[in-house]
Amino acid sequence: MAEPYVALVPLRWSDMDAYGHVNNVQFLRLLEDARVIGIAEWGGDGPSMLDEGIVVSRHAIEYRAPLSFRPAPVRVDMWVTRTHGAGFDLGYVVRDPEDLGETVYAVAETGLVLYDFAAGRPRRLSREVTAVLDRHRGEPVAFRWERR
Amino acid sequence: MAEPYVALVPLRWSDMDAYGHVNNVQFLRLLEDARVIGIAEWGGDGPSMLDEGIVVSRHAIEYRAPLSFRPAPVRVDMWVTRTHGAGFDLGYVVRDPEDLGETVYAVAETGLVLYDFAAGRPRRLSREVTAVLDRHRGEPVAFRWERR
Amino acid sequence: MAEPYVALVPLRWSDMDAYGHVNNVQFLRLLEDARVIGIAEWGGDGPSMLDEGIVVSRHAIEYRAPLSFRPAPVRVDMWVTRTHGAGFDLGYVVRDPEDLGETVYAVAETGLVLYDFAAGRPRRLSREVTAVLDRHRGEPVAFRWERR
Amino acid sequence: MAEPYVALVPLRWSDMDAYGHVNNVQFLRLLEDARVIGIAEWGGDGPSMLDEGIVVSRHAIEYRAPLSFRPAPVRVDMWVTRTHGAGFDLGYVVRDPEDLGETVYAVAETGLVLYDFAAGRPRRLSREVTAVLDRHRGEPVAFRWERR
Q1: What is the secondary structure of C50-85 as a DSSP string?
Q2: What is the pLDDT of residues D36-72, one digit of tens each?
Q3: Chain B touched by D48 (CB under 8 Å)
Q4: How many CB pairs under 8 A join A and C?
């Protein structure tokens, strides 16, 4: 199993809500940024999955600690938890960068489906894309909460 | 089992992203609005749970159909799926208002924890609050995706 | 001179920032909503200016009073302050709805340019569109601050 | 006259709207980020003006070129255009970083007022803060549009 991909995602002051913490919804925004940075980089010179269209089919996110704005970015560890015919799942841990400590703010998982916007339908994961994703495979996300 | 609470939540043109659809993250923003509207109303004259502090502990959301901006609000059906010592879970269906049709855009669930900001710790669901929530109890959310 | 057009624009809880007030940037978002609502309505059965493309060329906004989230919408008075060959200016007052009082939260002005996205260049205000806009003409915005 | 302060402000994919460009309102968000970064840095070891409270009293912004999301940040040149008893004005140019070219996306100006939140009233610029600001004084913003 490979090391997770690490994206450093800057916060914005406006990510905070009236409680003075990064709003729970904005965490999903940080994950979006991590995906945009990461998937472009994973693609390398090869097929850009983003250009061809990826649609989010689901999210699950669990919050662990409150986060306030600071100039330092958060570190998002990101890896592939599953691939299937028409898409793949990503796992994430949102945490402090190494030099700031051990705090974990959230863990999350996103389901993604490859989509052909022109044709208006999902498309199949190519062998090339599957190979790219397999280089980033990792464990299932360790949610504390499980369906009861 | 009670009828779900219905919140009509207006869209904003800016909810759309570069794909021309309401962005997946913005759906969580719509749910936040539904909670703010609904929980204030549920509280009635009684104890305002919001004023005393509620923290989101997790979200799960599954997208079913693309949504584009239109002047008409979306309808969010919202109900309580679980209560426990320190909080409760809400289920939602994001759909068209009755006069617009049957389309379901998303189903979701949020875990909420009551929090005493002054004391810096979770607090227990009072008997009064539990009674309010019980009037809005409903079925588990029918996610298509289940933990494998 | 015509009465200004009145748009009722709902707030979102997330419009508030860490100071507990509707963030200054979000006021521009409320104006965007007022434009989307208003310009669609002004167009009537006639030419939809929005469908053909409008680009914001400038904003000026002056804040008068802090605003906090509440379920009641704000009232945005909106009118045309100028038309010229390639576009027009809108003036706004953001205030409480009549039943809530006299508070003015902001006054603002936006420069808009009609744009032909397909051809990649500005386009001229048609006689029809000018006629629509003239029905909404009003006074210049009464900014307190003026260029010194 | 001093060189303007330079802040490199990262974009987010979500800054784009349905037209596929960084939304005009989001430019103000980028300026907010530049202020948060810059004013903290200007303060140095001395009095933190941000901690004591700054309120935005007005914005003027003029858009010059469309901007699309890219991994590279925008460069925001920022300087003081005026100081007065109770606050100061900032000028900005939003442009490409040096290695990307000469494109200017927007010019803008913000009026800021120092505010004592505890006492609920504006406060006077101290001699220390004025001295800090004077080190960043520059020319008025060269808006193309002027009040007619």
Answers
A1: HHH-EEEEEEEEEE-S-----SSPEEEEEEEEEEET
A2: 989 888 876 555 665 568 899 999 999 999 999 999 9
A3: no
A4: 22
